[in-house]
Amino acid sequence: MAASSYSFIFSSRWMRYIVMAIVAAVACGFLANWQNNRREARDAEIARINANYHGAAEPLAEILPETSTRLPEDLEWKRFEATGTYDPASTVFIRNRSVDGQAGLYVLVPLRTDSGAELAVVRGWVPPGQTGQTPDLALLPDPPAGEVTVTGWLRVPQDSPDETVTQNSLRSIDPQNVPGMTDPYTGAYAQLDAEDPPAAEGLTALPPPSTDPGSHLSYTFQWIVFGIMILGGVVYAARRERISRDLEAAEQTGQAATTQYVVVDKNTIAAGRGRRAAPSGPSRGTRYGSADPRRAAARRAGVEDRTRPHTANRIAPARRRPGSAEEAEDAMLDEQGF
Fold first, then answer.
1. I need a surface site. Which of 12, 33, 104, 308 has the fewest CB within 10 A?
2. 102-113 and 92-99 strand pairing
3. Polar residues: which segments have biased composition (predicted)?
């Protein structure tokens, strides 16, 4: 098909379709780029977590030189080491914390370091009490007594300055809200890895950080595919309409075509004129007469005899093969009175 057969796409209806398809495809492109940026950010975060989580432990004083120093986000899950003594009397629970899909509580115990500053240490996880409330503090395993060396990971605190302690529990991990901490590290809290010497009875350890990349990559490809499908759908619809228009035009052309007729002079047919030259030898005759003079004379006599009032003397025409074209022609001439 010629390219001009697609000229209908310049109509107002098709221009609206095309514009909407382009806008939708561009939107899909932006969404794909957004998901790809999130994927890249998540990949960078995973790389940072792995480097900090599995790195060598560094002294707490080197990572946080001041108690008010805010832990940078790129040092999240930084491995540290500190020496001090626990303060079990200031233990609090952190509510609504799950491990392996089971709801429970974190157990937070302040550690007074050698420098005199206090670090909030999450030592582990416990299930809720029998009534669903916070368990009895007296039933918890005791932390190591005396001086202990703690190794773990530093986390960014969950700021909640207006929260108050309820039944020895908090909703968020904010060192400023932990009772008994007079000089806390306000910019970070710790998640326990190991203690030296170890406790006589430990708590359920917390799981490592998630390094799941998520579905950002698949979403990126999905948005790209959606954009391609939208543009491809417009191209497909345009092709279908072009084919439909071509078929409709062909049908109209076929209906407008006139039937051709051959006009033959009846006198010529009656007189047997215009017949072909007689071939040599015996012949079965031509379309408008017989090559045999006797058969031709008989046919002329038969035609003339039709004007007589009596039909007894009519000369019968030459015998034709049943169903032949000549027999059909003779029947037509008989009906028209020739």
1. 12
2. antiparallel
3. 163-175
* Partner residues linked to 7 by β-bridges: none
The CA-atom distances, in angstroms, between 209 and each of 182, 193, 329, 338 are 30, 13, 101, 110
Whose CA is closest to 203, among 259, 270, 137?
137
Residues 18 and 230 sit within 8 Å (Cβ to Cβ):
no
Going residue by residue through the chain, which has 338 residues, state the pLDDT in tens, using 9 for 90 and above. 444 588 888 889 999 999 999 999 999 999 999 999 999 999 999 999 999 999 999 999 999 999 999 999 899 999 999 999 999 999 999 998 988 888 899 999 999 999 889 999 999 999 887 666 788 888 888 899 999 999 999 999 987 777 777 878 888 999 988 888 889 999 999 999 999 999 888 899 999 998 999 899 999 999 999 999 999 999 999 999 898 888 888 888 877 655 555 666 667 666 665 454 444 444 444 444 444 555 555 555 554 444 444 444 444 455 555 556 666 667 766 666 65
Structure tokens at 302: 């038969």
* Residues in contact with 66: Cβ distance below 8 Å, sequence separation at least 6, in sequence order: none
Dihedral sign from CA coordinates of 311, 317, 322, 326: negative
Token duo for residue 17: 């379709």
CA pair distance 107, 267, nearest whole angstrom: 124
| Centroid of chain to Cα 274 | 77
CB burial string 213-229: b at 16+ within 10 A, e below: eeebeebbeebbebbee
Instruction: State the CB neighbour count (10 A cutoff) for residue 106.
Output: 22
